[in-house]
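Page 47, continued from p. 46.
Same chain as before, 414 aa.
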Amino acid sequence: MKKKKIIVPFILLLLTAAALYLVFFHKDKTLKYIPENADVVILLDVKKLTGQYIYSMLTHPSNWSGDSTQNKKSMSLQDSGIRIPDFLQVFHLKSSGYSEWYSVMELKDPLEFLIFLKSQKFVNKGNNHFRKDQLFIVVEGDRCIIGTSDKAFATIKKQLLDSSDNKTWDAEYFIKGSVGSISFISGQRFQNFSIDLKDDEIEIKNDSDSQILNGTNFPIQHRNHFLEMELDAESVKKCAHFFNKSISDSAQINHIVGMVDLEHVNDTIISYSYDDNFNEVEKKTIQKLIQPSYVIGIESKDPERVWEYFQNRKWINAQNQFTLIPFQPNMINRIGKGVVIRSATNLIPLSPRLNENYILIRNSALLLASRKNLDEKEKRVISDIEYILYRNKGMEYSVKVKAKKGEFPLILRW
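Result:
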């Protein structure tokens, strides 16, 4: 009798442990929905994120009551007819726009998914093709393609849904222990960046063990500009390439430092109307605009060559304005070992070099005020951010999104 009393609880304990393992730790690492012409892949470890969420909930009981509306919305995805994968796969295709991202999801109940789309106010464009704002979805049997554009839907369908010999990947190629990853693919080469979600920050970096770019050692509080940056020659080329601009070696730029502030300015709009006697009447209207004031210092061993390069690219006009920057007016001048570009208002002095490679963007109330088309949730998330910091040293890269200290960790706030 005593043996039965011991064995039954022991079996129940084993079954509970097995169930917990299957729910939270056992993962299907086979990735079936990444096309061969993908050049960027984002993976999200759904089970790890779920475990992190449950742990945060258990350690913050004051959040248990929560917002019932928000809880219903989070639960609705579970009941949407989508089969939640162990690893969510999002990809970008070669030669497509920067804003074009796609994902393929399996459906456990296609009819229930169609009902879900209708409840979320997606517009049916015909042939199971749906759209809501900038989100596009096409349903193909028991799977669907989701994208920020629908331009590549036909290509993705042909490669991933219609082909029987579609290549599969192993998740370990992309992610190793972090809650998510961003991977850049070039031929057979992978450059992986881990994504870690902490209580009040999100950090993306390519070497999870490195302490070289430890943000706690970075002197970010020395100034208070909206944007600050310092870049070496190699970083200048990479940033220029990202914005579809080329900086040739012939320019010989070896260092850039810059600061930007946001300010309210009055803009006068002049319009004309006619009185009862058909006389022209001038009307002035004052409106407040938000625009940047900035200073950018460009250093080179041969400043004259930099000036000539800018002139040959027609980036300097007859008024000595640097036209590559859309915020006018500004002035570009040759000073010392390089050139300096300044906005015409609220002149900012160039600050001393830190001999670091970084771009720091601090939050600003003016930034939020300038975005009129944001919904309440988007405004809440943006206002919660303290700063975004990009750093690079050698072959190590890091991006940190730092949130303000709050009562709850980010996973419960956002």
